[in-house]
Amino acid sequence: MDNETSSVPPVPRGRRTRRVLIASAAGCAVLGGVLVLVPAPWERGSAPPPAPGPAALARGAVTGGKPAALPDLAALIGERERHVRAHPLDGPSWAVLGASYVEQGRRTADAANWPKAERALRTSLRVGSPNDARALESLAALAVQRRDFPAARKWGESARKAAPKRWTVHAVLIDAYTGLGDHGAVGRSLDTLQRLRPGLPAVKARAAAVYRDRGWREDAAAQLSDAVAAADAPAERAAYLEQAGRLALERGDREVALRHFQEALRTDPDQRAAQAGEARALAALGRTTQALAAYRAALAKQPYPEYALELGELYESLGLGQAARVQYDLLRERVRGAQAAGADEELVLGRFEADHGSASAAVRRLRAEWQRQPSVAVADALGWALYRTGEHEEALRFATIATDGEQGGGVRSAPYAFHRGMIERALERYGPARRHLREALVIDPYFSPLGAPEARRALAELGEPSVEDPPAR
User: Fold this and answer.
1) Which CATH homologous superfamily contains domain 59-178?
2) How far apart are the C-alpha atoms of 382 and 151, rounded to whole Å?
């Protein structure tokens, strides 16, 4: 034994050291007391994992509650369509496909996506689990895009029951409850959302929207600033920049808003909501030729009826009545297409009819809308339509709902304050009328190419209060 041991030549110290170093570099593990050498990556012939492709990126965004890039979405939809043709009983894949249609429709304003999304999501529930939270949540998101807020609440609450800790469900429920004017439920959903995923950029952006509706504009701006800084994909960052631009424009910060919108477009050229925002900011700055071009570019890629209404009113403010009528005809056409796809466009149609069509038709539409989904936005539109038909006392009731924080209307909105001031002026309540017309012009002196000049004229006609006037309340 000793002879056998002595026959093994000793390993020089330097060579032993090199072996140890080589073993360390190559990697090793101790399993059951046995040293196992693990080949180094270059010895295994491995390579770094490939970067995720467009479809994978879109899937991560869609399933993670983030905005997705349009080219990536198209790749994901093509991939999932091929997959479900080959595997028609794959419920989760149907759910991803349906959610992708919803996101694509939101980004493009193409209502043809809504029936496709509904079919895919209902197929997911039929061939998979009827309690699939992802499919239920996507049906809620689809209902939000269709402005069917009672359905959004129904599907969203079903998804929450199936998966109470799924944070994206609570985000969709915030939209549903906002559309129904249920401000208490909005607050509870936001509390849950922030508890489940504190610090997530998408959660901060959703909180900013709620804070804006409460009139907490500085808090909303801070949340959006954090969301923009933390966003990890161009489409996501651009979406939050667009939201920040809208918030800046609502408080009259035209240059700041324009910078946000233009940065959003540089970050994601498909961010057409930012293109429409850029048009609003340019119009407010008096750069009308550029504003008209930006509106036309936005409508070419994302033809929302609201954009056609805004462009029509800009043309009208410039004395271009025929061009305005073209846009109003486009609005009607887009509304018909969206309604055929199951969308509720009564709010935008009521707003349009009140100022550019039949005010009595607007009242009928908006009364029905108020009964169905009584949001602050509907209260403002109904109040204005009633004013246009001469029903001033009832108009004031709805305008108060839209502007009184105790009744839910906490948002600081120049158009809402303008509407209330004009209604009070018609009722000869001159003190409150002055206060609300001034408030509208303080919040945003450029809030509308038609409304802002009308507010200034009305305020000038009211003049300064006389010493006998009672104080405004």
Assistant:
1) Tetratricopeptide repeat domain (1.25.40.10)
2) 22
Q: How far apart are CA 349 and CA 338, in angstroms?
A: 12
Residue-wise pLDDT for 203-229, tens only, equals 999 999 999 999 999 999 999 999 999
Which residues of the chain are in CATH 1.25.40.10 domains? Answer: 59-178, 199-285
CATH of domain 199-285: 1.25.40.10
Long-range contacts of 209-213 (CB under 8 A, 24+ apart): 209/174, 209/243, 210/174, 210/178, 210/186, 212/247, 212/250, 212/411, 213/178, 213/186, 213/376, 213/410, 213/411
Residue 279 DSSP symbol: H
Distance CA 188, CA 274 (A): 30
Q: How far is CA 149 from CA 67, 130, 157, 373, 459, in A?
A: 21, 21, 12, 7, 37
Provide the 3-class DSSP secondary structure of residue 37. Answer: strand
pLDDT at 46: 56
The answer to whether residues 152 and 143 touch, using CB atoms and an 8 Å cutoff, is yes
Joined together, the tokens standing for residue 159 give 């998804």
- Could you tell me the pTM of the whole model? 0.87
Detail the DSSP E strand segments found in 66-164. none
Which token pair is 37? 């050498």
Would you state the structure tokens that stand for residue 316, as one six-digit string? Answer: 């009208």
How many Cβ atoms from other residues are within 10 Å of residue 470's Cβ? 8
Alpha-carbon distance of 229 to 156, in angstroms, equals 29
Tell me how far CA of residue 50 lies from CA of 47, 53, 101, 444, in angstroms: 8, 8, 27, 49
